Amino acid sequence: MRLLHTADWHVGKAIRGRSRSEEFAAALDQVVGIALAEGVDAVLLAGDVYEHRAAPPEADELVFDAFLRLHDAGIRVVVIPGNHDSALRLAALGKLLRPIGVEVADRVLPPERGGIVEVPSRDGSQLARVACVPFVPERRFGDAAQLFDASEAWHQSYADGMGRLLAAMAAGFRPDAVNVLLAHLFTDGALLGGGEREITIGLAYAIAPSRLPADASYVALGHVHKPQAVRGSPAPARYAGSLLQLDFGEVDQRKSVTIVDASPGRPAAVREVPIEAGRRLLDLHGTIDELAAAAGGVGDAWLRVFVRTDGPAPGIADRVRELLPNALDVHLDYERQEPEAPQTPVSSLRPRDQFVAYYRSQHGADPGEELLEAFDEVLALELEEA
Q1: What does the alpha-carbon distance between residue 172 and residue 108 come to, in Å, rounded to a whole number?
Q2: How many distinct helices (H) and strands (E) make up the chain?
Q3: Where are the domains of the chain?
Q4: In degrees to the nearest 10, what's the CA dihedral of 196, 198, 200, 203?
Q5: How far is CA 7 from the centre of its chain?
Q6: Residue 265 in this model has a pLDDT that exceeds 80
Q7: If pLDDT is split at 50, 70 and 90, which confidence band does 192 have?
Q8: Would you say residue 234 has pLDDT above 60?
Q9: What is the C-alpha separation between 386 and 372, in angstroms, rounded?
Q10: Predicted pLDDT at 81
C-alpha cells in the first residue's frame, strides 16, 4: 500500500494579524496534487487540522474542499484531533465526513472497540490497520486509561502510561495487514519546530521513542512542526511537520509530506515530497540603508527585521515598514547597557526619574534630551489640567 502522511495543517492561523488563507489554499492544493500524482491509497492526517478549536467558516471551506477532492479521486482519509483541535467538533463533523471517505477517530478507544480503523487499498489486495491515538492531555490521561482496564502501573507518569497505552493499541495489529500507528504526541529527543505550544512539549509529555510499537509497519506522528525521522524508534517513524512555516522559529525549515510504501510484515519505505506553496518567512539584518538595498530581493516573504542602530531610534519601525511593507516584527539591534538596580523604590522617585528608570529597563540606554524635554512638556500640561 502507498500512504501519504501529513500533519499540523493549522488551517486558520494568521501571522501578526495577517490572514494566510491564500497560502493554506495553495498548500492544500499541493497536498491533494501529490496524493493524486503518487496514486496513494489513503491520506493519514496526524492532528492539528485547525489552528483554533472554534474554526472559522473559511478554514472549514479549505479543509472540506481538500477532503472532497480526495474523495473524488477515490482516496480515503483518516484524521485524528491534535491539541489545537476540538475533539467534540471533529466528532460531530465525522458523521458528515464519513460518507465522503473521511474517517475521524476523535478519541482514544481500545482496538476492539473502534480504536483501529481499517483502510483497504484501492485495488482491494491489501489492508491497513491504523491504530489511532489522538492527543491526550495529561489531565485526561486517566479517562483514556480506564478504557483499557489499566493497572496502577499506568499512572506512575504520563510518559510511561502513554507507552503502555501504545502497546495496548498495537495489540490489535495483525501479521497479514499493514499496521500503522497514527498519533499526535511528543517523543523524547524530537527537534522542535519553533511554533509549538510549549505547555504540550515539555518533559512531562516526552515519550521514549523505544515505546513506539516495534511491530508497526510505520508510525505516523503529528505535533512537532519540523519534519524528521524519530531516532531510537524500533519501527520507521516520522513527524510529517507543519504544512507552512507557521512562525519565525521555522524560517529555516523546508516543509513536506511523507510518502509511505508498506507491505504486511515489513518495515515501510518512506520518502519526503516537498511542499513549496506558501510565503517564506525571512529574517533580515542591517542598517536602514542596507535594508533599503535588500528590499528588492525579498519578494512577498513575511519579514522579521533587525535594524542595526547606534541606540534607541523612535519612529524607525515606521521607516522600515515604508521600505518593507511585509515587515511583521521590527527589532532594534544595538549594544545595550545592563540597567543598574535602583537604590530606592521606583514609586518614590519623581515622575521624570521614574520615566528615565522605565526607559533604561526597556531600551538598555538613557533617553535623549529631546525626549526628556517632550516628557517634561506633557507632564506640565497634565499638572495644569489637574
Answers
A1: 13
A2: 9, 17
A3: 2-274, 281-385
A4: 120
A5: 9
A6: yes
A7: confident
A8: yes
A9: 21
A10: 98
| Percent helix / strand / coil, the chain, rounded to 5 | 35, 20, 40
Which grid coordinates belong to 245?
Answer: 512555516
The cell numbers describing 352, all together, are 521624570
Please answer whether residues 242 and 193 qualify as being in contact, where contact means their C-beta atoms are separated by less than 8 angstroms. Answer: yes
Q: pLDDT value at position 200?
A: 61
Mean per-residue pLDDT for 321-346?
A: 82
Tell which residue, 258, 301, 269, 308, has the closest CA to residue 282.
301
Nearest to 51 by CA among 19, 84, 23, 79: 84
Average pLDDT taken over every residue of the chain:
92
Output the pLDDT for position 126.
95
Cα atoms found within 13 Å of the Cα of residue 354, Cβ hemisphere only: 9
With cell 495553495, the residue in question is: 26
Read off the pLDDT band of 199 (50, 70, 90).
Answer: low
How far is residue 300 CA from its own chain's centroid? 22
Strand order in the sheet with 302-308: 281-286, 302-308, 327-333
Instruction: Record the cell numbers describing residue 329, joined without a space.
Output: 516584527
Fold classification of 2-274 is Purple Acid Phosphatase; chain A, domain 2 (3.60.21)
Amino acid at 161: G
